[in-house]
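ok posting inputs for the magnesium ion job
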Amino acid sequence: MTKDHVEIWNSCLSVIKDIVTVQGYKTWFEPIVPLSLTDNVLTLQVPSQFFYEYLEAHYIDLLKTVIKRFVGAKGKLEYRIPVDSTNTFGSITLPSANRNFPKNPIGQPAPERLSSGPINPFVIPGLKKLQIDSQLNENYTFENFIEGECNRLARTAGMRVAKEPGKTAFNPLVIYSGTGLGKTHLCHAIGLETKRLHPEKTVLYVQAEQLSTQYVTANKNNNRPDFINFYQMIDVLIIDDIQFLAGKAGTQDVFFHIFNHLQQNNKQIVITSDKFPSDLQGMEDRLLSRFKWGLTADLQSPDLSTRTSIIREKLHDNGITFPEEVVQYIASNVRNNIRELEGVMNSLMAQSLLNKKAVTIDMAQQIIDRFVRNTVKEVSVEYIINIVCEYFKITPEQMSLNTRKRQVVQARQIAMYLSKKYSNASLVSIGQQCGKKDHATVHHACKTIANQLETDKQFKVMFADIEKKIALS
Ligand code: ADP
Ligand code: MG
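and the output
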């Protein structure tokens, strides 16, 4: 190295300053940091991908001229972008269009990667870079997300997040529940409301599965930095069904970095999961520990009054009325899952329109049998007790015995925990069925198991084994 890169860059700047506007110079050239000059390659650090693309699109001719003049005829330019402020990735290097200078004549088109369009499929082509399709479903609003005891915390937290994205303690906001209980609906509602209140914010909804597919493709095409940069530009990132990342180490790793970047920059992250975060198998601990920084709120199976409200709302929306006894019948019999409730309602409403007849309890019963019974019947406390006992090789009677035998106590506590998680039974009823204990004992058992899941890896594996048996049933 004969000449100092700083010196050379300063010489370049003195010319640039004379040519570009004061504002242009301040915006686009002052933030550049010269890093090195090796083998005629001058490396400049620029703050972001966007910055790099802007320079290449607007100032490439000027840059070529000054490089030629101050670095020499063989002079080349490279950019570095610090990808992550913690610098975990180090930095990425991007070529300049004048990399091959001076062989190519000035004014040649930029290399293909610059003109090949945005790497993310959600970017609307031809529009400004930050205008992306948020992928939000307009039908999933807060307005039609019926509030009830079962969802109050999650719904309220969601509304707060939409009001002040990135500024509340709910970052990330993790929403978890079993299937069909409103995770997807709620996170779209958060996205829509954020956009309504803050039209300037970039909101993106993405399913974890999509994220993973995009990442694999980006990696194949050597576009990992672009992929990361794209996600780091989002103000409110909503990832649905994070459990899909289980076992996908590559995507988890990249998401970890995106997550850190967004959080450090006070951007909002919303995540949904079909399991409590610490129950997610195959997920890196460092990622799970990040989830704990914010708020984890669950959506529970809807209580009777929420189910009734949802039914009424559906009927109202469609301008249909059912006899009150039918409404009550449906509300009392479709308990576990709102998606099922909607399925039953759609089917009944269709029948009533088709037959032009009032819907009866008989009709409702038939449809409920077809839609629901098969999936509901097994998740009873009794069923869970049987599975747990089978696993521990004890009988349900032994499990109910008043003993301090470790294995029996553990089986009972696991059965209580799983019953709370998977059945519709109250703590009192769970206690009754698991050895005639009171609800405080069940509560204590659930806490003990939750703690153990957090601290004891071996236990976690065993527990997952049992849980799988219930899930597969
Ligand atoms: P998940 O993502 O948890 O599987 P979804 O968000 O897909 O569940 O919800 C299933 C269906 O139930 C959707 O059609 C949704 O609109 C509806 N739903 C869920 N919760 C509510 C609610 N509180 N009020 C009204 N509809 C709801
Ligand atoms: Mg969903």
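notes: Residues 338-355 form the longest helix (18 residues). The first strand starts at residue 33 and ends at 38.
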